Amino acid sequence: MHLRKVVLSACLLLFTCGLAGAAEEEPGLVSAADLSFEAEYESGCLYRAGEVRVLELQGNYRQMGRQYGHLLGAEMVSLYQSAIEDYYIQEMGLSPERIDDVAQAVFFRYPRRYREILLGMAESSGLSEQHVIRLNALEWIPKIYALSYGHCSGVAAWGPYTSGRPLVFGRNNDDGEYFKQFAVPLVIAVFKPADGSIPVALVNYVGVIYAATGMNAEGLFVELNSGPWVGFSLERKSIFTSLFTFLQDCANLDELTLAMLATLPELNTIINAADRRSACSFESSLWHARRRGPNEPGFIAATNHFLSMDWPPANYDPQLRPDTTFRRYENLLRLGQRYYGRFSPAMMMRVLDTTIENGGPTDATDTIFQVVAVPAQLVLWMKMPGTQDWTKVPLGPLMGKE
Length: 402
Hints:
alpha+beta; ten-stranded mixed β-sheet; six-stranded antiparallel β-sheet; 11 helices; 16 strands; 31% helix
């Protein structure tokens, strides 16, 4: 194991140095940090990139859960206390019974192998099984009975928009302001199960296992935006866990399209996805799923309203899409034209650093974390506004790709 750590550290250093040019195109925008080794347990390892915890997990699903729980047990216990006990129960006044109803409803719809991850966490984290299941429902507990309109934004540029450089994807994860206190530290968990599936990196809160933002070892990137709110079904498998499965099974957009168009989610969603060559958007309602291509060759943007013109009129009711979804979308289109041919990771960071008021997609209050991805290089840059500036996280060596 010691030799493996030395070799991996050397690979990470070479990988980081080889990609430095992308971050140096516009000095001052990027704060690069190498992954630093923190700890190991069984076959799992923990690294850090500032306030981002990066886990490398391998084995069967119970074993990966045990590794996660042991390596981030202190952070899980702390977040459980601050989020579940202090905020949801004490401050919001939610009853433990309601919290358990929501958490069990989320857990019940998980595939068996993903339940095994959570059960493994309960063996090693210091939290009970009940508490682990509650923590995993962190985002759902205050929302499942009162879902509100989403705020997230996604944008990708490639081809003529990057002047032939690799595709770059930008993603804002927006939510209620109180989620900012739960996002430190943020976790990138790399799952490498011994079942032949593709290694997958998930970005999420500590102890939360599903794919709202993720990338696999083949360079397939996905992120989820809320769609127009027209209902919810607890009788379906969650799209959040389906995306985890799709990342494990699909190597490119063509394969992902087959999976997405055969799937009906439990709520209206917009799944923005990219592989090494191009990007697209899947608009999925409770009744149908459609793939939307780029706005222009080499550029696509999506916020929280459906754009395909053949959706039923109800999806265009202004009452179903308040807030800033149109404004953010139009801002992204204008920025796409402004930076045509100049998109790079640093330029995408500039786009995401631009607030709505200044013609960008970002809300100074509600943007919890941001991601810039380069699928061809298996690299993420992460930012938590107000906590940590853009920080590079090279995932290739952790996924077995040098």
